[in-house]
Structure formats: C-alpha cells, structure tokens
Amino acid sequence: MRVTFCTDLDKSVVVANCERRGWIQVGPDDEWNIYWAGTQTCRSLFSVDSGYRMNDNQIINHFPNHYELSRKDLLVKNIKRYRRELEKEGNMLAERGDSAKYLHLDFIPITFVLPADYNMFVEEYRKTPQSTWIMKPCGRSQGSGIFLINKLSKLKKWSREAKTPFQQHLSKESYVISKYIDNPLLIGGKKFDLRLYVLVTSFRPLKAYQFRLGFCRFCTVKYDSSVAELDNMYVHLTNVSVQKHGGEYNSLHGGKLSVQNLRLHLESTRGKEVTETLFDQISWLIIHSLKAVAPVIATDRHCFECYGYDIIIDNKLKPWLVEVNASPSLTSTTANDRILKHKLLNNIFSLVTPPSGLPDVRWNKIPTEDALGDFELLIDEDLINLQDGDSHYLVKNTYKWK
C-alpha cells in the first residue's frame, strides 16, 4: 500500500519516522495522505480563499483554529467562559470556596488581557500591592517579550515607552498579565516547569492522550524572588531558548530532567500518595482545559494535534497551567531529547492511522492497545459509556473523569 507524506518543517525527526514506515515523501501539490505542517501552512490550507478540499485518506497535524487553546489570551478567555457556564448549570465542578476561589477549576493563575482588562487588573493589583506579575505578549513564543513587574508605575512606564501604549484604538499587540507563581517547587534551589505532550485526535467527541515521557526544564540560576533579580530571566524563565544563552547552561543534559525522575524524586522526598495526587491533578487540568475549548474548536475529521503543555508546580505541590503550545519544538538539544522526540512522533503516527496503515477519516479513532505506545488515554467521550469488554483497557481510565 502506497502511503505518502508531506512536510514543510525542516526536521529530520518527522522525515525519519515517516520513511521508517515505508511512506513516500511528496510535495504539497502532489497527492499526499499525511501532512505534518506548520501552523501558517494550516491556516492558508483551511482558509476560504484556498478552496482546498481534503479527501477521506488525508490527515493533517493541526485543527483549523488550534489557537483557541494555544494563544495565551484565548486560553484564558475560554477557561473563564467554561467556568461561568458550569456555574450557570449548577455543576459541582464550578463550586467556590470561602475566598470565592474555584475549588476544582483553579488551575490557571489570576490573569487579565491588556489593554482590554486594564481597569480590572488595577483593581486586583491594589488588593495585594507589591505582588509580582508576569507580562507576556499573546502572539509570541520561546520567552520573547516577557517581563516581570511588582509596581504599577513600572507598567505605566512600560506603556508610555512601548510603541503600542494601552489605548484600545492604538494597541496592535495584546498582552496577558498573570499573578506570578512566586513559590515554585525548587530542585537544587532552581525553578523548573514541566513540558508534557498531549495528543488530541478529536474535540467533539473529545479524544485525548498524554505522552508519559515528558520532561522538566530548569533555570540555570538559583531561584531568588528578591526585587534585585526581577529582571534576571535566567532565574525566572525556564524556556530553553532563553536559558541556552546563559553562562551556566549545560549542553550535555540541556537543563532537563525526565518526568519519571521527577516522580522518583517527589516520591522519596514528599511520599508516594501526594505524588500520585499531583499527577492526577495534572491530568485533571489538561482534560478540563481541553473541555473548555472543545465547543469553539472547528473540529475536522482530517485533523489531529500534538500540544505542548507547560505546567509549573508550586511548593505545595499544586500544578498550574502556564501555557499550551500548538507547535512544541521538535529540535533535539541532547541525545535523550532526540530519543524522546523520535518516540513521540512514532507513537503519534501509530495513534492517528487505523490498523490498515492508510489514513481514513471514516475510522472510529479507537486505537488498539499496541498502538498506544508511550501514550495513555486521558479521555475518550465515545468510550465513557461503552461496556464492551474488549475496550476495557481504554475505558478504565475514563470513569474518574466522568
């Protein structure tokens, strides 16, 4: 059977995985079955002007409006809407505690979109003056344009000096400003975050899988929350694209630690039970972030997507969702990285293609147990009520998310 693939990413990990399966590389104008594309390519392919119509044997690695989850401002907007809707329904998930905080859905830091929410931000800031906030441009990645503030005057000064001051009609670039997690869990005195990979094969019904082999990304400089270190991004930002320019960067391990080793460390220092609870909470927040965007994603049977989730754990072992990437880096900075990313791509291709090997959008997207590889099921709404004994291995995980 001739299966063809196309990619516009100059990444050997994609080509090597496809060729190992005997798939043949073709150009975008040829007849392709699988397209591993950049987000820009997807946008133009799905645009009204392109007039392109995919056939039943074609699949592509992005949903048309994947940015509802990966743009920082839209992620926050969708999660806030999701909470409000559950609250209206009287759903227990949207229950609030004494301080009006959500008891179950409190997994993103207090966040506002600027300039639109400027007045609401000021009101919140005044409740805890001198608290630290982190500013991020909505449409950028890899730590670009991020800075920390702890005084309102700093924000006003930045606004005056920025090319796009906080005036609605002038502002071209919007920012999110979030309460900074200033009590991160430290290992060796250094701050880190988790990069986890989540594969979504359908949003309606929701079908999502989590890759077991994520990793922690460490800062190269010991954490210091003092005002003196507020501008030192080597203390605060875990992005490899930032840290690799630091003098303390170790290219051998790339400032990374596997999730398995993090789990072992936590089990030995904090105990097995709380470690299990933490990882359950991480799965919980991933599922509910996906549920929050599911109604607004243009779900298309030809699409699948691998998202890169960035999660910070605080010193009380509470996970916080920082952001979601639609094109998590496939660049390998270390030998372990290369192995992990090859395995990731191999497992993704096994999950998104039916047992026949030829993509087919009529397939029910229920993979065999062997096809899962290092992925584990997070949720499959099709299977939640399925009582078929053969599917038990997939169903057993879904009950706790019901």
UniProtKB/TrEMBL annotation:
Domain of life: Eukaryota
Main location: cytoplasm
Record flagged with keyword Cell inner membrane: no
Localisation: Cytoplasm, Cytoskeleton, Cilium basal body
Keyword Transferase applies: no
Molecular function terms from GO: ATP binding; tubulin binding; tubulin-glutamic acid ligase activity
InterPro entries for the chain: TTL/TTLL_fam (IPR004344)
Any one of the GO BP annotations: microtubule cytoskeleton organization
Annotated catalysed reactions: (L-glutamyl)(n)-gamma-L-glutamyl-L-glutamyl-[protein] + L-glutamate + ATP = (L-glutamyl)(n+1)-gamma-L-glutamyl-L-glutamyl-[protein] + ADP + phosphate + H(+)
Gene3D superfamilies the record matches: ATP-grasp fold, B domain
One Pfam family of this chain: TTL
Keywords: ATP-binding, Cell projection, Cilium, Cytoplasm, Cytoskeleton, Ligase, Microtubule, Nucleotide-binding
GO cellular component: ciliary basal body; microtubule
Subunit: Part of the neuronal tubulin polyglutamylase complex which contains TPGS1, TPGS2, TTLL1, LRRC49 and NICN1. Interacts with PCM1, CSTPP1 and LRRC49.
Family: Belongs to the tubulin polyglutamylase family.
Protein name, entry field: Polyglutamylase complex subunit TTLL1
